[in-house]
Amino acid sequence: xxxxxxxxxxxxxxxxxxxxxxxxxxxxxxxxxxxxxxxxxxxxxxxxxxxxxxxxxxxxxxxxxxxxxxxxxxxxxxxxxxxxxxxxxxxxxxxxxxxxxxxxxxxxxxxxxxxxxxxxxxxxxxxxxxxxxxxxxxxxxxxxxxxxxxxxxxxxxxxxxxxxxxxxxxxxxxxxxxxxxxxxxxxxxxxxxxxxxxxxxxxxxxxxxxxxxxxxxxxxxxxxxxxxxxxxxxxxxxxxxxxxxxxxxxxxxxxxxxxxxxxxxxxxxxxx
Length: 272
Ligand code: NDP
Fold this sequence. Notes:
Helix content: 25-40%
Bound molecules: NADPH dihydro-nicotinamide-adenine-dinucleotide phosphate
Structural class: alpha/beta
Strand content: 15-25%
């Protein structure tokens, strides 16, 4: 029987993860199956237990269960402890559940794929929710010259910056305190979901700057459209999705899949 993996979420019907992992499995010849499971909102732990009882070996976890997944793990990676969230579960041979988060590594790998320089860069991160908490450690590890976190609720950005201050030069505040120029601006708010744009000054970008939206879709997001109109190079979060999946696949199977062809297939699917 093939080893079983899945992605848990609610809702989950539109997840691209089964397609991504099927492509990785085919490419590497790994005997595994990967499905999407809608876990009940009030019983994520039960859904994981049932999956394990039926032979499940590991899982991805998405909205709204990443914090609950964090709480049920027996052991956690250092980066998951920092993030306070888990997007990858792995059942150990001892029957214990290990949790990790691969979102931040996925973002950094995607930026590297696009040859965006991070060492010495002035970085602005918009948002202070779960997604931003998950990317700060890997971003700071790339030794940027500064990371500024700006959020609608300023106090959350300040608290986040304080939590990560031991890892590098980071500060935080409200949108009104944003002063550029920046070499890289990452939109980690969910404003793009509703077609909204955080209030940002026009002179945000340095020459050759990059604007990255963690959201993706068939069309550029409002943020990317705005940034490209101000001379920045826009990149959406599709590659991050593929790269975080590749890192999860590596944790489960100890094989590192090639991501270029999967990026292309996913982009084509979006444009159909
Ligand atoms: P959270 O709900 O935890 O946080 C939402 C954040 O967005 C908060 O900082 C909130 O500000 C801010 N926000 C919401 N609406 C607006 C608005 N209209 N204007 C300005 N700021 C706003 O969400 P997550 O952190 O989990 O997710 C954020 C985004 O990241 C989502 O779009 C998600 O799809 C994306 N993502 C992409 C991934 C990928 O692989 N590409 C992986 C993970 C996430 P406030 O604190 O003031 O409420």
